[in-house]
Write a sequence for this structure.
Protein backbone atom coordinates (compact mmCIF):
# COMPACT_ATOMS: atom_id res chain seq x y z
CA UNK A 1 0.00 0.00 0.00
CA UNK A 2 1.43 3.40 -0.83
CA UNK A 3 2.45 5.68 1.99
CA UNK A 4 -0.21 8.31 1.46
CA UNK A 5 -3.03 5.74 1.30
CA UNK A 6 -1.85 4.18 4.56
CA UNK A 7 -1.59 7.60 6.22
CA UNK A 8 -5.12 8.57 5.12
CA UNK A 9 -6.53 5.29 6.45
CA UNK A 10 -4.83 5.77 9.81
CA UNK A 11 -6.04 9.34 10.12
CA UNK A 12 -9.53 8.34 9.10
CA UNK A 13 -9.70 5.79 11.88
CA UNK A 14 -8.16 8.10 14.48
CA UNK A 15 -10.65 10.87 13.69
CA UNK A 16 -13.68 8.65 13.12
CA UNK A 17 -14.11 10.03 9.60
CA UNK A 18 -15.73 8.68 6.45
CA UNK A 19 -14.79 9.54 2.90
CA UNK A 20 -17.58 9.78 0.33
CA UNK A 21 -16.50 9.86 -3.32
CA UNK A 22 -18.55 10.56 -6.43
CA UNK A 23 -17.87 8.20 -9.33
CA UNK A 24 -16.49 11.09 -11.43
CA UNK A 25 -13.54 11.41 -9.03
CA UNK A 26 -9.99 10.44 -9.98
CA UNK A 27 -10.00 6.64 -9.58
CA UNK A 28 -7.17 6.55 -7.01
CA UNK A 29 -9.56 8.20 -4.52
CA UNK A 30 -11.45 4.87 -4.39
CA UNK A 31 -8.48 3.38 -2.50
CA UNK A 32 -9.40 5.42 0.56
CA UNK A 33 -13.14 5.99 0.07
CA UNK A 34 -15.73 4.29 2.27
CA UNK A 35 -18.49 4.82 -0.26
CA UNK A 36 -18.30 5.52 -3.98
CA UNK A 37 -21.45 6.25 -5.97
CA UNK A 38 -23.90 8.67 -7.50
CA UNK A 39 -25.45 11.74 -5.88
CA UNK A 40 -28.44 9.89 -4.42
CA UNK A 41 -26.36 7.09 -2.89
CA UNK A 42 -23.89 9.56 -1.37
CA UNK A 43 -26.64 11.74 0.13
CA UNK A 44 -28.19 8.60 1.65
CA UNK A 45 -24.81 7.64 3.13
CA UNK A 46 -24.28 11.18 4.48
CA UNK A 47 -27.67 10.88 6.16
CA UNK A 48 -26.91 7.50 7.74
CA UNK A 49 -23.31 7.76 8.92
CA UNK A 50 -22.36 7.98 12.60
CA UNK A 51 -18.86 9.28 11.81
CA UNK A 52 -17.74 12.58 13.35
CA UNK A 53 -16.23 13.88 10.11
CA UNK A 54 -17.39 13.51 6.50
CA UNK A 55 -14.78 14.20 3.83
CA UNK A 56 -16.62 14.77 0.57
CA UNK A 57 -14.63 13.99 -2.57
CA UNK A 58 -17.18 15.55 -4.86
CA UNK A 59 -18.41 19.04 -5.69
CA UNK A 60 -19.56 21.86 -3.42
CA UNK A 61 -23.32 21.24 -3.55
CA UNK A 62 -22.74 17.62 -2.49
CA UNK A 63 -20.79 18.70 0.61
CA UNK A 64 -23.45 21.31 1.38
CA UNK A 65 -26.16 18.65 1.12
CA UNK A 66 -24.18 16.35 3.44
CA UNK A 67 -23.85 19.18 5.97
CA UNK A 68 -27.59 19.88 5.89
CA UNK A 69 -28.39 16.20 6.39
CA UNK A 70 -25.82 15.81 9.17
CA UNK A 71 -25.66 19.23 10.83
CA UNK A 72 -23.78 17.94 13.90
CA UNK A 73 -20.94 16.50 11.84
CA UNK A 74 -17.93 18.30 10.45
CA UNK A 75 -18.16 18.20 6.64
CA UNK A 76 -14.95 18.85 4.74
CA UNK A 77 -14.42 19.58 1.04
CA UNK A 78 -10.71 18.98 0.28
CA UNK A 79 -10.59 21.64 -2.47
CA UNK A 80 -12.91 24.64 -2.38
CA UNK A 81 -12.55 25.15 -6.14
CA UNK A 82 -14.80 22.13 -6.66
CA UNK A 83 -17.99 23.87 -7.65
CA UNK A 84 -20.60 22.59 -10.11
CA UNK A 85 -20.88 24.81 -13.17
CA UNK A 86 -24.54 23.88 -13.60
CA UNK A 87 -25.41 24.65 -9.95
CA UNK A 88 -23.72 28.05 -10.37
CA UNK A 89 -26.14 28.95 -13.19
CA UNK A 90 -28.94 29.87 -10.76
CA UNK A 91 -28.93 31.86 -7.52
CA UNK A 92 -31.60 32.80 -4.99
CA UNK A 93 -32.72 35.89 -6.94
CA UNK A 94 -33.01 33.93 -10.19
CA UNK A 95 -35.02 31.09 -8.63
CA UNK A 96 -37.43 33.67 -7.16
CA UNK A 97 -37.78 35.38 -10.55
CA UNK A 98 -38.35 32.03 -12.30
CA UNK A 99 -41.09 31.14 -9.80
CA UNK A 100 -42.69 34.59 -10.12
CA UNK A 101 -42.88 34.14 -13.90
CA UNK A 102 -44.83 30.87 -13.35
CA UNK A 103 -46.86 31.42 -10.16
CA UNK A 104 -48.45 28.63 -8.10
CA UNK A 105 -46.64 25.76 -9.78
CA UNK A 106 -44.63 23.35 -7.57
CA UNK A 107 -40.87 23.60 -8.08
CA UNK A 108 -38.50 20.65 -8.29
CA UNK A 109 -34.79 21.26 -7.94
CA UNK A 110 -32.10 18.94 -9.16
CA UNK A 111 -29.71 18.17 -6.28
CA UNK A 112 -27.09 19.97 -8.41
CA UNK A 113 -28.10 23.31 -6.91
CA UNK A 114 -27.02 25.42 -3.94
CA UNK A 115 -28.62 25.25 -0.49
CA UNK A 116 -30.09 28.75 -1.08
CA UNK A 117 -31.80 27.60 -4.28
CA UNK A 118 -33.07 24.41 -2.61
CA UNK A 119 -34.56 26.49 0.19
CA UNK A 120 -37.02 28.01 -2.37
CA UNK A 121 -38.10 24.66 -3.84
CA UNK A 122 -40.74 22.08 -2.94
CA UNK A 123 -38.96 18.88 -3.80
CA UNK A 124 -35.44 17.77 -4.64
CA UNK A 125 -34.35 15.00 -7.00
CA UNK A 126 -31.22 13.40 -8.41
CA UNK A 127 -30.74 11.97 -11.87
CA UNK A 128 -31.52 8.48 -10.56
CA UNK A 129 -34.90 9.30 -9.05
CA UNK A 130 -36.11 12.37 -10.99
CA UNK A 131 -38.90 10.50 -12.81
CA UNK A 132 -40.08 8.80 -9.59
CA UNK A 133 -39.98 12.09 -7.65
CA UNK A 134 -42.02 14.04 -10.20
CA UNK A 135 -44.50 11.17 -10.58
CA UNK A 136 -44.93 10.97 -6.79
CA UNK A 137 -46.06 14.60 -6.71
CA UNK A 138 -49.18 13.84 -8.76
CA UNK A 139 -49.08 17.28 -10.43
CA UNK A 140 -50.10 18.17 -13.98
CA UNK A 141 -47.40 20.84 -14.23
CA UNK A 142 -44.12 21.49 -12.43
CA UNK A 143 -41.17 23.86 -12.67
CA UNK A 144 -37.78 22.18 -12.91
CA UNK A 145 -34.34 23.71 -12.27
CA UNK A 146 -31.53 24.19 -13.02
CA UNK A 147 -31.02 21.45 -15.66
CA UNK A 148 -33.27 21.97 -18.66
CA UNK A 149 -32.21 18.63 -20.22
CA UNK A 150 -32.93 16.48 -17.18
CA UNK A 151 -36.27 18.28 -16.85
CA UNK A 152 -37.17 17.64 -20.50
CA UNK A 153 -36.12 14.00 -20.17
CA UNK A 154 -38.45 13.58 -17.17
CA UNK A 155 -41.27 15.16 -19.18
CA UNK A 156 -40.68 12.73 -22.05
CA UNK A 157 -40.64 9.73 -19.68
CA UNK A 158 -43.87 10.64 -17.93
CA UNK A 159 -45.85 11.93 -20.92
CA UNK A 160 -48.63 13.48 -18.79
CA UNK A 161 -46.80 16.16 -16.78
CA UNK A 162 -45.86 19.55 -18.25
CA UNK A 163 -42.31 20.37 -17.16
CA UNK A 164 -41.29 24.01 -17.50
CA UNK A 165 -37.52 24.17 -17.23
CA UNK A 166 -34.95 26.76 -16.22
CA UNK A 167 -32.29 27.17 -18.93
CA UNK A 168 -29.38 25.61 -16.99
CA UNK A 169 -27.13 22.85 -18.32
CA UNK A 170 -23.98 20.86 -17.67
CA UNK A 171 -21.13 22.11 -19.88
CA UNK A 172 -19.40 18.72 -19.64
CA UNK A 173 -22.38 16.68 -20.88
CA UNK A 174 -23.30 19.23 -23.55
CA UNK A 175 -19.98 18.60 -25.27
CA UNK A 176 -21.53 15.33 -26.44
CA UNK A 177 -23.28 15.89 -29.79
CA UNK A 178 -25.72 13.62 -31.69
CA UNK A 179 -23.08 13.20 -34.42
CA UNK A 180 -20.68 11.72 -31.81
CA UNK A 181 -23.21 9.00 -31.05
CA UNK A 182 -23.93 8.34 -34.73
CA UNK A 183 -20.20 8.06 -35.50
CA UNK A 184 -19.51 5.83 -32.48
CA UNK A 185 -22.41 3.53 -33.43
CA UNK A 186 -21.05 3.24 -36.97
CA UNK A 187 -17.60 2.35 -35.61
CA UNK A 188 -18.88 -0.08 -32.95
CA UNK A 189 -22.17 -1.41 -34.38
CA UNK A 190 -22.61 -4.04 -31.64
CA UNK A 191 -22.05 -1.70 -28.74
CA UNK A 192 -24.85 -0.46 -26.46
CA UNK A 193 -25.01 3.30 -25.95
CA UNK A 194 -25.48 4.34 -22.30
CA UNK A 195 -26.11 8.04 -21.62
CA UNK A 196 -26.63 10.36 -18.66
CA UNK A 197 -29.89 12.39 -18.76
CA UNK A 198 -27.88 15.64 -18.49
CA UNK A 199 -27.01 15.09 -22.16
CA UNK A 200 -28.89 17.02 -24.86
CA UNK A 201 -32.26 15.43 -25.68
CA UNK A 202 -31.13 14.65 -29.25
CA UNK A 203 -28.25 12.63 -27.74
CA UNK A 204 -30.48 10.88 -25.23
CA UNK A 205 -32.89 9.84 -28.03
CA UNK A 206 -30.05 7.85 -29.64
CA UNK A 207 -29.14 5.93 -26.45
CA UNK A 208 -30.10 2.35 -25.58
CA UNK A 209 -30.18 3.20 -21.88
CA UNK A 210 -30.42 6.52 -20.01
CA UNK A 211 -29.61 6.76 -16.31
CA UNK A 212 -27.55 8.19 -13.48
CA UNK A 213 -23.86 7.42 -13.20
CA UNK A 214 -24.45 4.32 -11.10
CA UNK A 215 -27.49 3.44 -13.22
CA UNK A 216 -25.17 3.32 -16.23
CA UNK A 217 -22.64 1.23 -14.32
CA UNK A 218 -25.28 -1.22 -13.09
CA UNK A 219 -26.71 -1.60 -16.61
CA UNK A 220 -23.26 -2.37 -18.05
CA UNK A 221 -22.34 -4.79 -15.25
CA UNK A 222 -25.61 -6.75 -15.45
CA UNK A 223 -25.86 -6.82 -19.25
CA UNK A 224 -24.81 -9.88 -21.27
CA UNK A 225 -23.41 -7.51 -23.90
CA UNK A 226 -19.64 -7.01 -24.05
CA UNK A 227 -19.16 -3.56 -25.55
CA UNK A 228 -20.53 -0.23 -24.36
CA UNK A 229 -20.31 3.36 -25.57
CA UNK A 230 -20.46 5.57 -22.49
CA UNK A 231 -21.93 9.07 -22.85
CA UNK A 232 -21.06 10.60 -19.51
CA UNK A 233 -17.99 11.69 -17.54
CA UNK A 234 -14.75 9.72 -17.93
CA UNK A 235 -14.69 8.55 -14.27
CA UNK A 236 -17.46 6.06 -15.10
CA UNK A 237 -15.39 4.50 -17.90
CA UNK A 238 -12.26 4.41 -15.69
CA UNK A 239 -14.08 2.47 -12.96
CA UNK A 240 -15.87 0.06 -15.29
CA UNK A 241 -12.65 -0.67 -17.25
CA UNK A 242 -10.74 -1.29 -14.01
CA UNK A 243 -13.35 -3.66 -12.56
CA UNK A 244 -14.75 -5.51 -15.61
CA UNK A 245 -11.80 -6.42 -17.77
CA UNK A 246 -13.78 -8.91 -19.91
CA UNK A 247 -15.93 -6.05 -21.25
CA UNK A 248 -15.03 -3.02 -23.33
CA UNK A 249 -16.08 0.50 -22.36
CA UNK A 250 -15.64 3.28 -24.90
CA UNK A 251 -15.80 6.91 -23.76
CA UNK A 252 -18.00 8.65 -26.34
CA UNK A 253 -15.27 11.15 -27.12
CA UNK A 254 -12.03 12.36 -25.60
CA UNK A 255 -12.02 14.76 -22.69
CA UNK A 256 -15.55 14.29 -21.39
CA UNK A 257 -14.24 15.38 -18.04
CA UNK A 258 -15.76 17.52 -15.31
CA UNK A 259 -12.73 19.62 -14.33
CA UNK A 260 -14.23 20.50 -10.96
CA UNK A 261 -14.70 16.87 -9.97
CA UNK A 262 -11.04 16.20 -10.69
CA UNK A 263 -9.54 18.73 -8.27
CA UNK A 264 -9.18 16.39 -5.31
CA UNK A 265 -5.93 14.40 -5.07
CA UNK A 266 -4.93 11.90 -2.39
CA UNK A 267 -2.69 14.60 -0.90
CA UNK A 268 -5.69 16.97 -0.69
CA UNK A 269 -7.70 14.28 1.09
CA UNK A 270 -4.85 13.76 3.54
CA UNK A 271 -4.55 17.53 4.15
CA UNK A 272 -8.31 17.80 4.60
CA UNK A 273 -8.26 15.16 7.35
CA UNK A 274 -5.07 16.41 8.95
CA UNK A 275 -5.96 20.12 9.05
CA UNK A 276 -9.75 19.55 9.09
CA UNK A 277 -10.17 21.81 6.06
CA UNK A 278 -12.22 23.15 4.31
CA UNK A 279 -15.22 23.07 6.58
CA UNK A 280 -18.58 23.59 4.86
CA UNK A 281 -21.27 25.45 6.76
CA UNK A 282 -24.83 26.36 5.79
CA UNK A 283 -26.93 29.18 7.27
CA UNK A 284 -29.40 27.54 9.68
CA UNK A 285 -32.53 29.28 8.28
CA UNK A 286 -31.60 28.30 4.71
CA UNK A 287 -30.78 24.78 5.85
CA UNK A 288 -34.08 24.36 7.69
CA UNK A 289 -36.01 25.07 4.48
CA UNK A 290 -33.65 23.31 2.07
CA UNK A 291 -33.52 20.11 4.10
CA UNK A 292 -37.29 19.71 3.81
CA UNK A 293 -37.14 19.26 0.07
CA UNK A 294 -34.14 16.91 0.38
CA UNK A 295 -35.91 14.87 3.09
CA UNK A 296 -39.04 14.53 0.91
CA UNK A 297 -36.84 13.06 -1.80
CA UNK A 298 -35.07 10.66 0.59
CA UNK A 299 -38.43 9.46 1.96
CA UNK A 300 -39.61 8.32 -1.45
CA UNK A 301 -36.20 6.86 -2.40
CA UNK A 302 -35.85 4.32 0.42
P1 LIG B 1 -25.44 11.55 -10.66
O1 LIG B 1 -26.78 11.89 -10.08
O2 LIG B 1 -25.53 10.53 -11.73
O3 LIG B 1 -24.48 11.24 -9.61
O4 LIG B 1 -24.92 12.83 -11.43
C1 LIG B 1 -24.34 13.89 -10.78
C2 LIG B 1 -23.71 14.80 -11.71
O5 LIG B 1 -23.24 15.83 -11.33
C3 LIG B 1 -23.72 14.45 -13.10
O6 LIG B 1 -23.13 15.45 -13.82
FE1 LIG C 1 -21.87 19.81 -12.39
FE2 LIG C 1 -21.70 18.83 -14.87
FE3 LIG C 1 -19.66 18.55 -13.22
FE4 LIG C 1 -21.92 17.18 -12.83
S1 LIG C 1 -20.49 16.97 -14.55
S2 LIG C 1 -20.73 18.25 -11.27
S3 LIG C 1 -23.45 18.70 -13.50
S4 LIG C 1 -20.50 20.51 -14.01
Amino acid sequence: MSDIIEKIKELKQKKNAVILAHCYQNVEIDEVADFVGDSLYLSQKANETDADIIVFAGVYFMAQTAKMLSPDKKVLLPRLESGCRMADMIDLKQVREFKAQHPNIPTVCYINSTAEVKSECDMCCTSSNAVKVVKSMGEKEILFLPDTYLGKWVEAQLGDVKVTTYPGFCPTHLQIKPKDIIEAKAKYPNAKVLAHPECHQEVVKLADYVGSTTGIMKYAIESDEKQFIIATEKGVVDRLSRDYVDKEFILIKENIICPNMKWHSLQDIYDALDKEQYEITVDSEISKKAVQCIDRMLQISK
Observations:
- The two ends are 36 Å apart (CA to CA).
